[in-house]
UniProtKB/TrEMBL annotation:
The lineage of its organism: Bacteria, Bacillati, Actinomycetota, Actinomycetes, Streptosporangiales. SUPFAM superfamilies: Probable bacterial effector-binding domain, Putative DNA-binding domain. Residues 5-75 form the HTH merR-type domain. It comes from the Bacteria. This is MerR family transcriptional regulator. Keywords: DNA-binding. Gene3D superfamilies: 1.10.1660.10, Regulatory factor, effector binding domain. PANTHER family: MERR FAMILY REGULATORY PROTEIN, REDOX-CYCLING DRUG-SENSING TRANSCRIPTIONAL ACTIVATOR SOXR.
C-alpha cells in the first residue's frame, strides 16, 4: 500500500461525503477506491480522486442521476448533463404549473364545473400518437399537433385523447377530423363541460367532470377528449376554449 493513500474516513472529510456514501458509490462502480485491504476490506483512496468525488457529490446535490454522473466521470458527460438539465427544467415547469393551479384554488376555491350530457356523433379521423409520462404530457401533445398540422392542417378540428388512468408511462393521441381518415372516434353519450382558459388548467375542468360522475353514480369511459376550439397562435391563453368530453359507459 502506498503511503500517499488516504483511509476512507479522511478521504470522506476531504470530499465532504460520508463514509456510507463512498461505500455506496464503490458498490455501484461509480467511484472505486485505489486500494482495498484484502484482510480487513478497508478502503483507501488517492488524493487525486478527490476531484471526482467532489464532482459526484455536487452533481448528486443537483439531482443528476447516477447513470449520468458515471458518464461525466468517463468524459462522456456533455450529453448526459444536458439530458439531466432538461429533466430538471421540465420538473421546474411542472412545479410552476402546480403552483399556478394551487394559487387559483386558493383564490377561487375548488371549481364548480357546469356539466351537461350531450350526444356525440361518430367521426372519422387521422391520429398521431406519442409516448408520455405525467410530466411530459404537454410536450407529447404538442408533438402530435405539430405532426398533424404539418400534414393535414385543421385547427380548430383537433381533439386530444388522454387515458383516464395516468400510469407512469402512457400514450397521448391527437385526432384530426378527416372524411378519409382510417380511424373512428366513437359516438354516444358524453358528459361535457366547456373549459375557458389556458390549456395547462384543463385538469381542473377534467376533475370537475369526473366529480360529476361520482355525484351522479355514472361510470366514466376513456379516453378523456379535449376538443380544441381556437388557434392558440392567435388566441390569448385566457380566452382559449376547450370542450372536455368523457363518455358515459353505463348509458346507451
Amino acid at each position: 500500500m502506498s503511503n500517499d493513500l488516504l483511509p476512507i474516513g479522511r478521504f470522506a472529510r476531504l470530499c465532504r461525503l460520508s463514509v456510507k456514501q463512498l461505500r455506496h458509490y464503490d458498490d455501484l462502480g461509480l467511484l472505486a477506491p485505489a486500494w482495498v485491504d484484502p484482510s480487513s476490506g478497508y478502503r483507501y483512496y488517492r488524493p487525486d480522486q478527490a476531484r471526482d468525488a467532489l464532482m459526484v457529490g455536487m452533481l448528486r446535490e443537483l439531482d443528476v442521476p447516477l447513470a449520468a454522473i458515471a458518464q461525466v466521470l468517463a468524459d462522456r458527460g456533455t450529453d448526459a448533463l444536458r439530458e439531466a438539465r432538461d429533466r430538471l427544467e421540465a420538473d421546474v415547469a411542472r412545479r410552476r404549473h402546480a403552483l399556478r393551479l394551487l394559487d387559483r384554488v386558493l383564490d377561487e376555491g375548488l371549481p364548480e364545473t357546469a356539466v351537461s350530457v350531450v350526444e356525440e356523433s361518430a367521426r372519422r379521423v387521422r391520429t398521431a400518437s406519442e409516448p408520455a409520462t405525467p410530466t411530459t404530457i404537454a410536450a407529447a401533445t404538442g408533438a402530435c399537433v405539430a405532426r398533424l398540422l404539418e400534414n393535414f392542417g385543421g385547427i380548430p378540428k383537433l381533439t386530444g385523447l388522454f387515458p383516464l388512468d395516468m400510469a407512469d408511462e402512457f400514450e397521448v393521441r391527437v385526432a384530426i377530423e378527416s372524411e378519409a381518415g382510417p380511424d373512428v372516434l366513437p359516438g354516444g353519450p358524453f358528459a361535457h363541460a366547456l373549459h375557458v382558459g389556458p390549456y395547462e388548467e384543463i385538469a381542473l375542468t377534467v376533475h370537475g367532470v369526473l366529480a360529476w360522475f361520482g355525484d351522479h353514480g355514472h361510470a366514466p369511459g376513456g379516453p378523456v377528449r379535449e376538443v380544441y376550439l381556437n388557434d392558440p397562435g392567435s388566441t390569448p391563453p385566457e380566452h382559449l376554449e376547450t370542450r372536455v368530453l368523457i363518455r358515459l359507459e353505463d348509458v346507451r
